[in-house]
Structure formats: C-alpha cells, structure tokens
Amino acid sequence: VAVGVGAFPVMRRITRRLENLRNRVEALGAGDLGARVTVEGSDEVARLAASFNRAAARIEELVSAHRALLANASHELRTPLARIRMAVELMKDKADPRRKAELEQDIAELDALLEEILLASRLDAVKGLEGAEPVDLLALAAEECVRYEEAELDGQAVTVQGDPRLLRRMLRNLLENARRHGRPPIELRIARTAGGAEIRVCDHGAGIPDPERERVFEPFYRRPGATQGTGLGLALVRQIARRHGGDARCAMGERSDACFVVTLAPG
Ligand SMILES: Nc1ncnc2c1ncn2[C@@H]1O[C@H](COP(=O)(O)OP(=O)(O)O)[C@@H](O)[C@H]1O
Ligand SMILES: [Mg+2]
Question: Which ligand 1 atom is nearest residue 224's CA?
C-alpha cells in the first residue's frame, strides 16, 4: 500500500508531462514549427522530450530552407523573364501575331505564378500584420467589383483592421476564380457579424464537390479540368484571412452553387 500511495504523485507528474508532450506534438503537426517542450528531469520522458525537440528543430530548419529556396528561385527568375518579355516586345511585326500573343500569354502566366509564390513566402516569413489600418471593406469591395461586369455587390459597411493591399488581393482572387471557374452572375456580399466581418463570394457554376472543398485551399492544387491558373489563389486567400484573425472556407450555396466564405476579425 505504501508503494501505491507513494507512486501516485509520481504517476500524475509523468502523465502531466506526457500530456504536455502530446500537446506539443499536435501543435507541430498543426503547423506550428516552433513548438518545443521544456525538458524536465532525466528519465525516459525527459529523453523523449529532448528527442522531440531535436526532431522539431530539424523539421523547422528543413522547411525554412525549402521556403527560402522557392522564394529566392522565384525572385531570380523574374530578371530573365523581364528580358524575355522585352525581346518579345521587340519582335514587333516580324513575328506571327498568333505566336506572339501565345508567348505573351505564357509570360503573363509565369509572371503571375512568380508573384504569387513570392507573396505566399513573404506571408509565411512574417508573423502578424505589418501596416494594419482601418479598412472600409464595402468600399474596397465596390472598387474591386467594378472590374467585373458580371459581379453584383450587396451588404453593410464594415470597418476591419487590416492591410488594404492584402485584402484587395484576397477579394480579387475570389472574384477571378468565380469568373474563371464558375458561371455568372457573381454575388459578393459583405456583412457585419458578432465576430467581425464576413465576405461571401458566390457564383452560379457547378461549385466544388464536398470531398474537395478543403483540398482546393492547398497550394498548387487545381481541380481536373482547370486550364488556367497556378493553384495558389485560394491558398493565398486563406493565408490572408488567417493573418486577419479569420479564416476562409468553401460552402454550399442555396442552389448548390459555389460559395466562398471569408471571416475577418473586427477592426
Ligand atoms: N468559384 C469556383 N467554382 C468552381 N471551382 C472553383 C472556384 N474557385 C476555385 N475553384 C477550383 O479550385 C481550384 C483552386 O483554385 P485556386 O487556388 O484559385 O487556383 P487557380 O484559380 O489558379 O486554379 C481551381 O483550380 C478550381 O478547380
Ligand atoms: Mg484562382
């Protein structure tokens, strides 16, 4: 009995430390690459904690090396791309106009891809928001909507605290997707909610089947049949929403159409 009573607090301590370790493993799995545990004592649990820390540090190192490589390569590719664009420009009338237009299209796509990779890696690199200011979401949406003939805007005035350039980019990606992958009319709604603001972009296309509604937010994921685009648009939308204390998801509209819903924290 004496052993049993004496072992009880020890067990509790071990359980607590294991629980702590499990939490950190889950945090790492959820993407917090800086997750580490404090190593207490010198038993098996402590050794386990220390090897978790080593593994996590190695993963963090590898991931950031990959990100840096991608960002640097994208940056370096912009110079030769600018030269190619210049050369195509200089071809003037000597070239077959159809070939020239195709080349210009390819260059524009490459340029958009590099720009999106660079923006995504910049968002990865800096935590929090730099240059946040009060943004009138309805006004911003109105400005973006005029670029799309088939888009209608509806909603309430809401001010959020955010980066207007990123928020504009987010709206544009959603509108561009509705135009590119969906069918008009496009409906853009801005609403004030208890938690801040909600943006809804719906179109009358076929939408996205349930099993793929999460996958479309993965970088470079494009559904079969999508011909243009980089697959980075929705990944950026989610990154930007999360950066503003919210999130982005794909929802089913009332008529089984495509709806993308973004929530943002209050201003
Ligand atoms: N409004 C939409 N309607 C139907 N499918 C969509 C819509 N928006 C996005 N998708 C699908 O999600 C995929 C990922 O979108 P995105 O990340 O913006 O990449 P991209 O537009 O470059 O293909 C698209 O390839 C497309 O298949
Ligand atoms: Mg897109």
Answer: 27
Can you give the residue ranges of every domain in the chain? 1-125, 133-264
Residue 220 CA: which ligand is closest? Answer: 1
What residues flank ligand 1, with Cβ below 6 Å? 173, 177-178, 180-182, 203, 205, 207-208, 216, 221-223, 226, 229-235, 258
Q: Separation of 228 CA from ligand 1 center, angstroms?
A: 10
Architecture of domain 133-264: 2-Layer Sandwich (3.30)
Q: What are phi and psi of 186, to 5 degrees?
A: -100, 130
> Which is it for strands 133-136 and 196-203: parallel, antiparallel or unpaired?
unpaired
Domain 1-125 grouped into CATH 1.10.645.10:
no
Quote the ligand 1 centre to 232 CA distance (angstroms). Answer: 9
Per-run averaged pLDDT (10 residues), the chain, 267 residues:
72 90 93 91 93 96 89 90 90 83 89 89 80 93 94 94 94 95 94 93 91 92 84 94 95 78 89
Same fold, 1-125 and 133-264: no
